[in-house]
Design brief:
Number of strands of chain B: 4
Number of domains of chain A: 2
Number of strands of chain A: 10
Strand order of the largest sheet of chain A: 5-10-6-7-8-9
Oligomer: heterodimer
CATH topology of the largest domain in chain B: 434 Repressor (Amino-terminal Domain)
Helix content of chain A: 40-55%
Strand content of chain B: 5-15%
CATH class of the largest domain in chain B: Mainly Alpha
Order of helices and strands of chain A: EEHHEEHEHEEEEHEHHHHHHH
Largest sheet of chain A: 6 strands, antiparallel
Largest interface: A-B, 57 and 47 residues
Helix content of chain B: 40-55%
Strand content of chain A: 5-15%
Shape of chain B: elongated
Number of helices of chain A: 12
Strand order of the largest sheet of chain B: 1-2
């Protein structure tokens, strides 16, 4: 078990995790007595995904490598039989009162927040992102003690920042969402949830008929990358956006290689539980795919820093991404066959 | 990825990675951020460059402070519009100096909140980009006034 820091009142054990939502759901389930790991929560919730996004609400095209924020809680509720008590108080004052009342009963509560308002994160990580999750574990005077999976220790967050973070507007606005585990089964047969989780994830990757989602989304990303020079202000801006590929794949709470390493870990755990040699082999394959995604990250960071971003270099990067699409298409089709 | 290849000795930004352990099992490890340890200087250099370009446009009255902060905070006008609670076309207007002056103080305050700055900083900008604020500004009970500490 990884080391962590314990909140004395709620006895909530804070641990760093790869991703904020899987980490906070795992933390809450562990606190409720359920023995489950972050990769297992991720896999059962069909977390692995890919989408290439371009919209007027984004300053620049971007991609995501996991499913929608909020779906981890919903899928664990459905597939593991966990009962969450969820609420979305409309008024910030009532939201704080409701949160404080739960904390007074020593109940750790997950809250959806805008990451920009987290007082404790390093300045280079400060960006508006409404799909961040933290666990509030205590409150003293005007400051909350929170467990944020991206931060090594329990952190302090002012009441003002918490209110602003919970009621930030924009895409995926949190609307004050808070939830806690009301009931979690102590013993669960994970075999069916694992199969369901794999099946849905594989279908999402290869069967969705939408051009920017799943494997089709990876291909679109590879093609659109060649158009990026037309979308930037100058060379420095292009360099920044190319280096962001690396940040999104490695540093934004993915556990490395855009969640592919975490998914390989899930498949290895699943193979053991299901005693399935096929899944064990798929787990190794996924680790290899992750290694090659990481090569993309390192390449993007290197050429970005050197500003070596001519058409040939972008073509090279695009070809590497396209190759991942082919590899993942084969992989997820094979995975679908294994889980039937 | 092998555990030994993932280890980065850097405390400024810690991350959790999933790796292959020596015994062949996969699991998590805490390590320093590869990007932050290798490329943070480059990131801040770029921010300086963005700041310099945007600053020059701002002081020559080609763009408004709203446009300046949208560049620095990497925000799209449509996203800022929803966060501030106004239309996207209004934000596009506010990005131009002539319309900026017609904005109400309360709208300016809402912009400042979204940018995470004091309202006063919509009207004053440092020529050089700095991660740490070069002067200490402290909120007062008056929402429109900050005190400056030497």
């Amino acid at each position: 078990m990884k080391k962590g820091t314990m909140d004395n009142k709620t006895r909530y054990l804070h641990k760093m995790a790869a991703h904020c939502e899987t980490g906070s759901v795992t933390g809450l389930l562990n606190h409720a007595g359920m023995n489950i790991t972050e990769p297992m929560v991720f896999g059962i919730s069909s977390g692995i995904f890919f989408a290439y996004l371009q919209s007027s609400k984004l300053p620049f095209p971007m991609f995501v490598t996991r499913n929608m924020p909020g779906s981890i809680r919903k899928k664990t509720a459905k597939r593991l039989g966990v009962v969450y008590k969820k609420s979305k108080p409309r008024d910030p004052r009532k939201a704080s009162e409701s949160l404080d009342a739960l904390l007074a009963q020593n109940i750790p509560v997950a809250v959806q927040v805008d990451m920009f308002e987290m007082d404790y994160i390093p300045p280079h990580m400060k960006a508006h992102f409404n799909g961040h999750f933290i666990i509030a574990v205590g409150k003293e005077k005007d400051s909350y003690t929170v467990s944020d999976c991206y931060f090594p220790t329990l952190a302090q967050l002012s009441q003002t920042s918490m209110e602003r973070a919970r009621f930030a507007r924009g895409d995926m606005a949190p609307h004050g969402l808070q939830y806690y585990v009301k009931q979690a089964p102590q013993q669960v047969d994970l075999r069916t949830p694992i199969r369901k989780g794999i099946k849905e994830a594989a279908r999402n990757m290869v069967k969705l008929p939408i051009p920017f989602l799943g494997v089709k989304g990876i291909r679109l990303f590879a093609r659109k990358l060649m158009e990026w020079p037309k979308l930037v202000r100058d060379e420095e801006h292009l360099s920044h956006e190319v280096m962001m590929i690396s940040a999104i794949l490695e540093e934004r709470g993915t556990g490395g290689a855009g969640f592919r390493f975490m998914y390989a870990t899930f498949l290895q755990e699943a193979a053991k539980l299901l005693n399935d040699a096929g899944l064990a082999d798929m787990s190794k394959q996924m680790m290899g795919i992750g290694d090659r995604w990481r090569e993309i990250s390192l390449h993007a960071a290197r050429i970005g820093k050197k500003k070596d971003l001519g058409p040939d270099r972008l073509k090279e990067l695009s070809a590497m991404i396209m190759a991942r699409a082919d590899e993942e298409e084969k992989f997820f089709n094979q995975l679908l066959k294994i889980v039937g | 990825m092998k555990e030994k290849d993932a280890y980065i000795d850097f405390d400024g930004h810690r991350v959790t990675m999933f790796v292959e352990k020596e015994d062949g099992s996969y699991g998590s490890m805490e390590t320093g951020s590869y990007l932050a340890s290798n490329y943070l200087d480059d990131f801040w250099q770029k921010m300086q460059h963005f700041h310099k370009n945007a600053y020059e446009q701002l002081i020559s009255n080609k763009i408004s402070p709203i446009a300046f902060y949208l560049i620095m905070k990497e925000m799209a006008p449509a996203d800022a519009a929803v966060r501030v609670g106004i239309s996207a076309s209004a934000v596009k207007k506010h990005m131009q100096p002539k319309y900026f002056s017609r904005m109400t103080l309360s709208t300016a305050q809402r912009y400042a909140d979204v940018f995470g700055i004091h309202l006063a900083n919509l009207f004053q900008v440092m020529p050089e980009f700095s991660v740490q604020a070069p002067v200490k500004q402290k909120k007062s009970f008056n929402p429109f006034v900050v005190t400056i500490e030497s």
